[in-house]
Specification:
Elements lengths: L1 E2 L6 E2 L6 E2 L2 H11 L6 E2 L6 E2 L2 H11 L9 E2 L6 E2 L2 H12 L8 E2 L6 E2 L2 H12 L8 E2 L6 E2 L2 H11 L9 E2 L6 E2 L2 H12 L5
Antiparallel strand pairs: 1-2, 2-3, 4-5, 6-7, 8-9, 10-11, 12-13
Length: 195
């Protein structure tokens, strides 16, 4: 990997691929230029260089409901295929206020159950508050109050379409570039709330 100092871009030394973020470059090199082993799905064209990704793909896309290891809530009928979703469910629905670890804003009374919720709050409410201007992506529905976040978004997701991460529904073929759209889909279509 070679690092270009102009605009903090990372460039592949084997092809024209460039990105501002290091993680997509590492993934690109592993998937396109390494001699490492490919893990291929026996049921569809999916393939990956990550064994854990294949295992996750098989569990989410090809196991029938009887064979899937479901993570079930002990306090209600909620069940899910991923353990992390169950943990978020329990924190959101079943823990009382005394049991929660709260993430508190230093600038206002806001407190959230998740660190990511606090981070989103701070970015939405307290950053660039003086001008209240939104910076919108011209290629998709992404918007942010921070111009630097928009630049990062464009460089990570639109610089090379192969880099775009797709958020996929575990219940049907729906997929989206945006996690928020997947969350809305899951709630509206399947009655499942992702946290």
């Amino acid at each position: 990997m070679r690092e270009l100092h102009l605009n903090e871009r990372y460039a592949c030394n084997k092809c024209p691929f460039k990105t501002r973020c290091k993680k997509p470059l590492t993934k690109h090199i592993k998937e396109n230029h390494s001699d490492g082993q490919w893990y291929e799905c026996e049921h569809c064209p999916f393939r990956t260089k990550y064994k854990t990704s294949l295992v996750s793909h098989l569990r989410m896309k090809h196991l029938n409901d009887e064979k899937i290891k479901w993570y079930e809530c002990e306090k209600c009928p909620y069940k899910v295929k991923q353990k992390s979703y169950l943990k978020k469910h329990i924190i959101s629905i079943h823990l009382n206020e005394e049991e929660l670890k709260w993430y508190e804003c230093k600038e206002c009374p806001y407190k959230g159950k998740f660190e990511t919720s606090l981070r989103k709050h701070v970015n939405r409410i307290h950053r660039n508050q003086q001008d209240g201007k939104w910076h919108k992506c011209e290629k998709c529905a992404f918007k942010t109050r921070l111009k630097s976040n928009l630049e990062k978004h464009i460089n990570c997701f639109h610089l090379n379409e192969k880099v775009v991460k797709r958020h996929e529904c575990n219940e049907c073929p729906f997929r989206s570039m945006h996690k928020l759209f997947l969350e809305r889909h899951m709630t509206a279509v399947h009655g499942i709330e992702l946290l």
